[in-house]
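Sequence design from tokenized structure. All designs in this work follow the same two-part layout: the structure record, then the generated sequence. An example of the structure record is given first.
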């Protein structure tokens, strides 16, 4: 009888931890998806702003009507675009890495807490 109770306790602990892990992973996936969507929207907004600025500069240059200035501005604009895109990409990669590390840390802590709590509860149930 004691052997059967111990086996049942082990099965209960394993199933509860698996269920908790699955729930956490589902929540994690959904929040990460939301996070990625927000990042994509921010990137699109930044790109639109850059394009608008470029168009305004081109219109100003065309109104001035000087070819050398036009070339200079195009060169400056290309450099600015390259720098901003690389900075944006680096920031996004860093944010994603930090986010994933933080999420993993939280999942590990929650798993440890649930395992400790379930083990303690089942031990109390068997002892008393």
């Amino acid at each position: 009888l004691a052997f059967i109770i111990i086996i049942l306790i082990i099965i209960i602990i394993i199933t509860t931890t698996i269920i908790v892990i699955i729930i956490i992973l589902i929540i994690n996936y959904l929040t990460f998806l939301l996070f990625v969507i927000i990042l994509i929207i921010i990137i699109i907004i930044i790109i639109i702003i850059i394009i608008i600025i470029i168009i305004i500069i081109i219109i100003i240059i065309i109104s001035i009507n000087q070819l050398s200035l036009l070339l200079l501005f195009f060169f400056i604009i290309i450099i600015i675009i390259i720098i901003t895109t690389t900075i944006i990409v680096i920031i996004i990669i860093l944010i994603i890495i930090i986010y994933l590390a933080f999420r993993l840390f939280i999942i590990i802590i929650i798993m440890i807490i649930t395992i400790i709590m379930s083990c303690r509860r089942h031990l109390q149930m068997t002892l008393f």
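The helical segments are 2-64, 67-127. We note this feature because it recurs in several other targets discussed in the main text.
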